[in-house]
Write a structure and sequence with these properties.
Blueprint: H1 10-14, E1 24-30, E2 44-45, E3 48-49, H2 50-61, E4 66-70, H3 73-78, E5 85-88, H4 96-107, E6 115-118, H5 128-133, H6 136-139, E7 144-150, H7 154-158, E8 164-166, E9 176-178, E10 181-183, E11 195-204, H8 205-212, H9 218-223, H10 227-232, E12 237-241, H11 252-263
Parallel strand pairs: 1-4, 1-6, 4-5, 7-12
Antiparallel strand pairs: 2-3, 6-11, 7-11, 8-10, 8-11, 9-12
C-alpha cells in the first residue's frame, strides 16, 4: 500500500464527536520466541500459564469475542477449554500487529467487527476496565486508541524500556489526548506530567489493514517503536489515560515481580 489517507480530521477527533456503535473484537497475539524471556506466554503464575491469565482479563472486559492469535501450537493447547477462539498464525510474522491482522482474516473474513483491540499477551494483571478504556479514543474519532499512565518514578522516566508519549491533557477531566510522538527518551521538555505508554491498541479495522500494508518507517526503525509507522503515515492516535501502568512481563525479573504480587 503506497500510503494512508486519514478518513477523519483531527478537529473532529478533538471535538469528542460520537459515531455509530462499534462492534469490537479482542485479539491477543502470543508466541514462544521471546528474546529476553523465552516461552513467557506459558510461564507459570500461581498455577496458571500467563496467557491464560490474560485471556481471563480480556473476557472479564466484556467487549466482544476474544481470540488468541498464537504463533505456536502449545499456546493454542494452553487456552483450550476457556471458551475463546484460538488460531495458529505463521510464526514468522514480524509483529503482533501482523499476527492480529492475520487472525482477523481467519475468524472474521466478512469484516463484521469494525474495531479490534490488540491486547498484549504479557499483561497478566491488566484491569478489565483499562482494556475497555482503549476504545475511548476510537469512539472520539481517532484511527487508533491506546493507553497512557502517569510516570511516577525517576527510574521509570529514564528507562529506555519504558516508552514515553508526547501528549497533553488540557485539564483533569479530559480523558483523551492526541499522541504527537512516542520515544524511549524523556519527552517532552519542561515542567509538567510525563506519560508512560501501555502497549494496548484499539484499531479501526481499516486502519490496521492500512498499517500492515506499509513498510517499516524511518523513525520506527530508529526508535524500534512500531507505532511511529502509524504517525509517520498520517494516522491519528488518541491516548486514554488510566490511573497506573500495569505490571508487564518482559524479563525474568518482571516475571518474579508479577508472581510476588499475585502471591501477596
Amino acid at each position: 500500500m503506497a500510503g494512508w489517507v486519514r478518513h477523519l480530521s483531527a478537529p473532529f477527533a478533538r471535538a469528542g464527536l460520537r459515531f455509530a456503535p462499534m462492534n469490537p473484537i479482542v485479539v491477543i497475539p502470543s508466541r514462544l520466541a521471546s528474546t529476553r524471556l523465552p516461552a513467557k506466554a506459558l510461564a507459570d503464575i500461581a498455577g496458571e500459564p500467563m496467557i491464560v491469565r490474560v485471556v481471563h482479563r480480556a473476557k472479564a472486559a466484556g467487549l466482544g469475542p476474544v481470540v488468541v492469535a498464537a504463533g505456536d501450537r502449545a499456546i493454542v493447547e494452553a487456552v483450550e477449554g476457556l471458551e475463546v477462539m484460538a488460531v495458529l498464525t505463521d510464526p514468522a510474522l514480524p509483529s503482533g500487529s501482523d499476527r492480529v491482522h492475520a487472525a482477523l482474516g481467519m475468524v472474521d473474513p466478512e469484516g463484521r467487527h469494525d474495531v479490534v483491540i490488540n491486547l498484549q499477551g504479557d499483561l497478566p494483571l491488566i484491569e478489565p476496565s483499562d482494556v475497555a478504556s482503549a476504545l475511548r479514543p476510537v469512539e472520539a474519532g481517532y484511527d487508533i486508541g491506546t493507553l497512557v499512565a502517569p510516570v511516577t518514578h525517576e527510574d521509570e522516566l529514564r528507562a529506555s524500556s519504558v516508552v514515553k508519549v508526547a501528549c497533553a491533557f488540557p485539564d483533569a477531566g479530559a480523558g483523551v489526548a492526541r499522541a504527537l510522538y512516542f520515544s524511549r527518551q524523556v519527552l517532552p521538555w519542561g515542567e509538567g506530567p510525563f506519560w508512560h505508554h501501555i502497549g494496548i491498541y484499539a484499531w479501526r479495522r481499516e486502519a490496521l489493514t492500512g498499517f500492515v500494508g506499509l513498510a517499516p518507517s524511518l523513525l520506527e526503525e530508529r526508535e524500534s517503536l512500531e507505532q511511529l509507522r502509524a504517525l509517520e503515515a498520517g494516522m491519528t492516535v488518541g491516548c486514554a489515560r488510566i490511573g497506573r501502568a500495569p505490571l508487564g512481563v518482559d524479563t525474568p525479573a518482571d516475571l518474579e515481580r508479577v508472581r510476588a504480587w499475585v502471591a501477596a
